[in-house]
TrEMBL record:
Superkingdom of this protein's organism: Bacteria
Keyword Transcription applies: yes
Entry-linked PROSITE patterns: HTH_LACI_2 (PS50932)
Matches recorded under Pfam families: LacI, Peripla_BP_3
Occurrences of domain HTH lacI-type (ranges): 8-62
Keyword Lyase appears in the UniProt entry: no
UniProt-recorded name of the protein: LacI family transcriptional regulator
C-alpha cells in the first residue's frame, strides 16, 4: 500500500473517477440522485484507493459507542470483561456493543463498517490479529485496544493483561508447598502470550524447587472446557500421572475435574487442581476451585477508559498494562497423597 493511497481524500477519489467531490459524497451517503453507472464507478474507485470515511463526530452525550469484540462464544471469562467495560462505559456516558468475530478475511471492509456504525474505538478480547487489521483501523483513525491477545502484531498496539507469570508462579508454588512434585500444566494455545507467561511461571517454580517436569506433563488447548477434559485425560493416563494439575483457565480446570472423576479419582484427596481467572465457575464447582484471580472486570474497565483516551487524541502512559493477580485458595487443593 503506497503512502498516497493511505492518504486518499474525497478529492483524490473524485479526480480518479472523473466526477465532482459532491458526487463522491452522495455515493458515500447513499443518496439516490446518482446514476447506477456513476455509482458503480465511484464505488470501484473507493475500493481501489482503500478509502475510509472519517469517523462521525459525536458531540451529544450518550451517542458514542465502543465495540467490544470477542473471537468466540461468550463464557464466564467474557462475561466478567463485559461487566467491567459496561460499568466503565456507564460512568463515561458511552455505550458498549458486543460482537463475535474479528473480520480477518475482510480487513478493510470490517474497518469501514465499524466507522460507518459510529464506533469511537475497538476493544478486541483474546483475538488473533493479522498484520492488516491494526493498519486498517489506523487508516480509519479508529483506536484499538487488545485484552489478552493471542498474538501481538509487529506494529505497536495498546494491550491490557494481568501478571500472568506471577500468577503461574504462585499457583505452582502453592502446590509445591503442599508436597506435590508431580505437577502438570494444562493450558491454552502454545503461541498465546498469556499462556506462555503462565507456563513460564509454572516452569520457574518447578525449577526453583528442583521438581522435574516429566515428559507429557505440559499440554495446550484453547482455554475451553473440552480442552480441559482432553488435556486432563492425557496427563492422567500417563504411566506416572500427576498428583496435581495447574490449569490455564477455570473452564479448563472444570474439564480436568470431569476427566479425574471419570477415572475414579477424588478431588482433592487423590488429585489437586488449580485454575486461573477466578470467574463465577470457581465458586460453584464441587469442591470450590482454588484459582489465580485475574482482575477481569478491572481489565475491561481499564481497556474502555484507555480506548476513550486514545479516541480523544490523548497519549497513554504505557502501551501495555498488567494488573496484579492473586492466588485464591479453596477446596480443590490438599497435601499430596502418600506414595
Amino acid at each position: 500500500m503506497t503512502a498516497s493511497r493511505r492518504r486518499a481524500t474525497l478529492a483524490t477519489v473524485a479526480a480518479s473517477a472523473g466526477v465532482s467531490v459532491a458526487t463522491v459524497s452522495k455515493v458515500l451517503n447513499g443518496r439516490s440522485d446518482v446514476s447506477p453507472a456513476t455509482r458503480s464507478l465511484v464505488q470501484a474507485v473507493l475500493r481501489e484507493h482503500d478509502y475510509v470515511a472519517p469517523a462521525p463526530r459525536r458531540e451529544v452525550a450518550g451517542l458514542a459507542t465502543v465495540e467490544l469484540q470477542f473471537d468466540a462464544h461468550l463464557n464466564a471469562y467474557s462475561t466478567e470483561i463485559v461487566q467491567g467495560a459496561v460499568a466503565a462505559g456507564a460512568e463515561a456516558g458511552v455505550g458498549i456493543v458486543v460482537s463475535i468475530g474479528n473480520g480477518v478475511e475482510r480487513t478493510t471492509a470490517w474497518a469501514r463498517e465499524l466507522v460507518a456504525a459510529g464506533r469511537r474505538a475497538l476493544i478486541a478480547v483474546t483475538s488473533q490479529m493479522n498484520a492488516g487489521q491494526p493498519a486498517a483501523l489506523a487508516r480509519a483513525r479508529l483506536p484499538l485496544v487488545l485484552i489478552d491477545p493471542l498474538n501481538l502484531p509487529r506494529t505497536r498496539v495498546t494491550s491490557i493483561g494481568s501478571t500472568n507469570f506471577a500468577g503461574g508462579l504462585a499457583a505452582t508454588h502453592h502446590l509445591l508447598s503442599l508436597g506435590h512434585r508431580r505437577i502438570a500444566y494444562v493450558g491454552g494455545p502454545a503461541t498465546a502470550g498469556c499462556n506462555q507467561a503462565r507456563l513460564h511461571g509454572y516452569r520457574a517454580a518447578m525449577e526453583s524447587e528442583g521438581a522435574p517436569v516429566l515428559p507429557g506433563y505440559v499440554r495446550s488447548g484453547h482455554f475451553r472446557y473440552h480442552d480441559g477434559v482432553e488435556g486432563g485425560a492425557a496427563v492422567l493416563d500417563l504411566p506416572r500421572p500427576p498428583t496435581a494439575i495447574f490449569a490455564g483457565s477455570d473452564e479448563m480446570a472444570v474439564g480436568i475435574m470431569e476427566a479425574a472423576r471419570a477415572r475414579g479419582l477424588r478431588i482433592p484427596e487423590d488429585l489437586s487442581i488449580v485454575g486461573f481467572d477466578d470467574t463465577q465457575i470457581a465458586q460453584v464447582t464441587s469442591p470450590p476451585l482454588t484459582t489465580v484471580r485475574q482482575p477481569l472486570r478491572e481489565m475491561g474497565g481499564v481497556a474502555l477508559r484507555t480506548a476513550l483516551r486514545l479516541a480523544a487524541g490523548e497519549k497513554v502512559d504505557s502501551h501495555h498494562v498488567e494488573l496484579a493477580t492473586e492466588l485464591v485458595v479453596r477446596g480443590s487443593t490438599a497435601p499430596a497423597p502418600p506414595g
